[in-house]
User: Fold these one by one.
Assistant:
Number 1:
Amino acid sequence: MRENAWSACSQQQIENIGLFSKEYKSFLSQCKTERECIKYFSALLEENGFVKLNKLIQNKTPLKAGDKVYAINMNKALVAFVIGKEDLQNGLNILCAHIDSPRLDLKSNPLYEEDGFCMFDTHYYGGIKHYHWVALPLALHGLICKEDGTKIDICLGEKEDEPVFGVTDLLPHLTEKEKGFNKLLSKQEDIEGEVLNLIIGSKLKEGSAKSKILDILAAKGIQEKDFYSAEIEVVPAGKARDFGLDESMIIGYGHDDRSCAYCSIRALIDGQTPLKTAAVILVDKEETGSPGATGMKSKFFENMVAEVMNLLGEYKELHFKRALNKSQVISCDVTAGFDPNWTEPYNKNTEAFLNGGVAFSKYTGSKGKSDSNDANPEFIAKLRKILDENKIVYQFTEMGKVDKGGGGTIASILAEYGMEVIDAGLPVLSMHAPWEVISKLDLFENYRFYKAFITGGNQKICAGTPNG
Ligand code: MN
Ligand code: MN
């Protein structure tokens, strides 16, 4: 077992961890979609002196060291920069996290009627265990875009007096039992995606449950065809909360990867003006392989680097290529935490433990490190220095036993520019379940590491940190 870092914490450290966790819980409870994250982070960046890059481009306003800028991509991805003292062609220090999480999405034709119920048809997003999504209260978050250009924001099921929705489940009494083995239940572990349908109503209008729901929607200005141009995500209803009698952990929806996204933005905001330009990239679509205009594979990030370089008066294609090539990246993503209830697929010696601090994965991938970025020891040595100088708690980990699975992150996409990249984030229990669990201590250490890295690691961490 890894050393549990709580025992070494002073009273002041515990208070700092508690305060940061409280702010994080508030963020996580409010932000359950990519768009909600972008809205929240834009406001936070603006409050802290960041200005929209677009405005500067329009006005041809030059940039200089210490300037803070950000750009939003289709309301679902973002990049923010703090301009450093060195030329951009010397490279950037980059934190990159994703803000999409597994969930159910409404289909384009979601409404239908079945046996007196009105239903919403869904198509799941990302790697879910289908059986996790039955028999729990679900909320609807998203938006509907109307032909006249107006948008209707949807957030339904989070307030006490609002209704919630759900995919119901079969009772145990009606599951066929055989040789002590519950056949139907075992089938349910492979619940087909097509079965994940939300019940949204049961009152009738002229014999039809769907007509009744259409009436309610019409009163809100929504026609059935408006779902063609909607983006509605079905997520667990309710807030992030403390977990455990000792309140050492947090249970919430979307720690993967909003815990790392939150730590990244806070690190950028709270850090001092760095030598090298600091950047935070928040992307969508990681859970489906990072495709599309808002995923990491899009050109958005490099386009924005080019714009920043242009406003710095440094732009040349060669300078631009050097800037990317010489950059260093923390691929900020969570990893699997060792689970005392499910020990079989883990190797205790190499697994990430909750309360063991920032979890580094030199490589991810599966079956012989396939499709993985494999971080260079030269880069890791630099990071060890930052970690040790700032007394940050950390662990070097793998995800599960060899050949027992694996996964990928956006690390390999950024590595294609020739950047030094490593994965570092928090261990998570119940990852990709509707309610995931993290340690508050790991969250805070993660934030402290990101801040040390983004400011170049050569300055002591500022106030509000245990060892600062
Ligand atoms: Mn994930
Ligand atoms: Mn992730």
Number 2:
Amino acid sequence: MPHHTEFSAVFVLLFVHELWCFQHLCPFRDTVDCATRRAGVDFSRSLPSIAARVLAMKISRKLVKPFLVEDGKHFRLKDHDPAHTAGVKTKEEANQLLQDGVAQLAEHQNKLYAQNSWALLLIFQAMDAAGKDGVIKHVMSGVNPQGCQVFSFKAPSAEDLDHDYMWRTMKSMPQRGRIGIFNRSYYEEVLVVRVHPELLKAEKIPPKLITKDIWKERYEDIRSFERYMTRNGIVIRKFFLNLSKKEQKQRFLARLDRPDKNWKFSAADIKERGYWDDYMQAYEDMIRHTASEDAPWHVIPADNKWFTHIAVAAAIVDTLDDLNLSYPTVPADKLKELQAARKLLEDKKK
Ligand code: ATP
Ligand code: MG
């Protein structure tokens, strides 16, 4: 029965291909019970398969979607538990997931850089001690520093205050092919400035323009800015590290108790803690008005640092996955050039 034989051969080939992709190409693949690994099968790299996509979707459903806010209309902070761990039980499990995530991220970043077309901007906002610095350190640990641009936004300088509030942001946007990281951002303009309205006065805006609608107007301007950037190929993802007030207290106490953490302690942070409820209200309102499909917020549980790291890594991998990045193919004339170069090298004796 020749038909049967052909069918079986094709089926076996497909099956082997799927198994290979399952092991090699899916995000966080090492945590998956993988038949090929147990069997010791080792193939070389090939194209992503359906199995890899299915697994990526699973990871996305577990570690990304629960924290993703693309439409803020009904967003309520109290629906998000800062101690949530999505079924990941131990630090060891999380470490393995993080390693896989970091490796995936590095691979994506190489392609992003090689293509030199898309850029990715990651924005981190949080209360003090939520772990922004740690996230940046751990999640970006595998990426090539050449392809990464990090900016920390502190209180604006005198020069900054002589301009509109987006001025310093425009100068810091990532170049094409790069990953830009904002440790705090223009969102402070609807957070700390809202909680402390005296800061608005320092911005030297003509008083006539400061009305009760100012925050709504800022949300609108931020949405427009992000739409503009998105339409230019700068992909924006925003992270709110959602820390509980109780855990913040523990982390502040650790900064007082432990000599290796003393340097991190700041009396100003304790003062800001006194405005906790105002900040939470400002964060909630901000997410409600600035979450969009193009530039969504990820509300990441931050009471367990190990979980924060894997949830952020998963979100970034998920985003880059969706861009379907690939290495640029070399045009025919360039290929000829490469062949000529090879010939030249091989012709020479040394
Ligand atoms: P860390 O404490 O880990 O070093 P951080 O981001 O808290 O990180 P700080 O120097 O402690 O850094 O604080 C920066 C301060 O600058 C924050 O209190 C923030 O609210 C403030 N800030 C940032 N942007 C603005 C802004 N546009 N207007 C006013 N204050 C701002
Ligand atoms: Mg601080």
